[in-house]
Amino acid sequence: MAVTKTKQKNKELASLLTAASCALIGGLATNANAGNNSWDVDAAFLLYSETDSRVSAAEPVISATKNYDEETKLNIKIAADTLTGASPNGATPSDQIQTFTSPSGNGTYTAEANQQPLDDTFKDTRLALSANWSAPLSRDWAYGVGGYFSKEYDYQSLGVNGSLSRYFNQKNTTLTMGLNLSNDTLNPVGGVPTTLFQVPENTNNNEFSQRQDSDSKSLVDTVFGITQVINRKTIMQFNYGLSTSSGYLTDPYKIVSVIDDTAGANYGGNFQSNGRNLYLYENRPDSRLKQSLYWQTKYQLDNNDILDLSYRYMFDDWGINSHTIDAKYRFRFDKQYLEPQLRWYTQSKADFYHRYLNASGYTNNEFASADYRLGDLDTYTIGLKYGYQFADDTEFYTRVSLYHQESSGDQGYGKLTKQDLYPSLDAVILMIGYKF
Amino acid sequence: MIFIEEIVIQSSCNQGNHPTPRLYQESAFCYKVEFECMASNCSILIECETLHLVKEAAKSAIIEAWRIEHKFSRYQDSNTFTAIHSKPEQWQNLDHETTQLMIFANHAYHASAGLFDITSGILRRIWRFNGSDKLPSQASIDSLLPLVGWTKLGWELHRPDRLKMPTGMELDFGGIGKEYAVDKMLVYCCEIFAKTQAAILINCGGDLACNGRRLNGESWKVGIESIKDATSADHIIALSSGALATSGDSQRFLLKNGIRYSHVLNPTTGWPVSNAPRSVTVAAPSCINAGIISTLSLLQGAEAKGFLDSIEMPYWISN
Fold this sequence. Notes:
Strand content of chain A: over 45%
CATH topology of the domain at 1-74 and 172-218 in chain B: T-fold
Largest sheet of chain B: 9 strands, antiparallel
CATH architecture of the largest domain in chain A: Beta Barrel
Oligomer: heterodimer
């Protein structure tokens, strides 16, 4: 105990003298931030709102980091979010009113003619907790371990992660290997539906009684990264990531419309089966192998402004390829900063993505999904962040982002061509935070 | 190393009558300026493609170092040091720089629980560390101790620009002056190279500071002179940013009855600290920071290593 106290006292003394030296010389204490063994807390509140007020979300996040020294720290993060609104269920719009069975099977919801079918039973509250510990192993090695837990009423996720870093060349080069394992359990409302099966009218249907209550999936992520200090103003990072998931990867609430492709009055309209529109529960493969390449460069200009550029290329065995380009520029003033951000994301569709299925051949599909998140997609984000640093080292920050999403793809035939199969989406994201 | 020319500095900036600094070329874009200051051999190493900026930077840095030396020297008159000591028992106003040094000395005094005290310089009147065996008498130590003690000064942190010196007391900026000068020289050089890429290493008798890595991305390799043999190095330190300072006794000690008395004095007892390492080198963001930590570690005596371990700053000990 006495030893610890002396050590603590000496460290305080050393940081006091560093600060005093700094005040005398007028420089910055760049590499002597010994850590003050206190908690750094970042409390933020995020609001997400789609402009047609379809979905809104509110998310308070508290992240607390205890710095034992420059390299030894414990981070604990708690986030809670509430989503309300309606999300696209995957079905195509129609010139007729469409009625859908709600996921529980106990009710229905409708989509007006020529309107995008939205599942308005969508409401979710999520609580997520994570803890991460990182510390040096020696002068050249460092490690990190962590755990993660999140819960929604129909979804739980449990994960562990670890990383190992090796420094070379006076820490100018860092090699990192990380591993993340997680296991997720789904308990969909109404049970796990039978894939590519017609959505039943209600719970009286046998399909409902055959359902399992839950299913699960597991995820293994590995990442290999190299971070290189290029010179005093430039730092570059390059990562390769390999991610495999297996198990139930399907979205239990998403359905696919089957369209009538026989010539006639209903050409391009909803195909009828058992006296009603045929909608199938979607089905995705039970495994996915994703690979990604990531490059990031941060550059500090002569006037201390910071340019942060990154690019990510991702491809998987579902046939999805994506590119993300992100650019941030931080204007730094005395106590304030202003950071505009531009981000562009483009993705090509999964092999089994179909906006709809044809009546003549839908039984031949092994997998099918009409989830726009698996289709051809472009998103654009423009954001502006502002921060103010107070004299006591606390910081207030706020960010406003405008998000625009465009989907594209097969325009259909017959009556379907008159429908907007790929509505765009706009959202506003507002974040307010305080670091202390 | 090719001699290029002397860097001529007007005599009004050379109150210490130092020899004219000399500029050498070490390799294609590496220049070295050698000069004397504060009884040390000093050098400025600059890697850069523009020779005229090297000369300009060296000149302004040397003028700054000599200015600091003159201002706080005990051996020159008509300077700030003399002015401060010529008006005992009177409140006098301190200039900005002296005020800042007093604030620093105050922090160092309190952080060290009184072990680092710039009023302790007068103990050197009786302690002469010349390798001999002549220890002062306890009576002579006792006669000086009343004149030692930072808190006896008429000085307060909330009015740091005022000072009242008690009669007979003396301030000694020698313990921080050289490191302070190294840092200031680097600031002056960096100002001149604000728009041109250059790698700079300032060295004043082993206290040094750099502005970052060398132009080829390598760190500076600094050898710490062996205590036993000045021609060999005890440690080779790779310095990529910040500063190094070394505190130690090299030839400055007394030896009596097998006990080695280092030149580091405990201002509260008036006696040398015993069992201190012979030399400690510390790396820190600034030279004055490195210097104060290495000095404080020696003042811990046998506990020096434990002290250095606990503050988690890079250090090297020689015995």
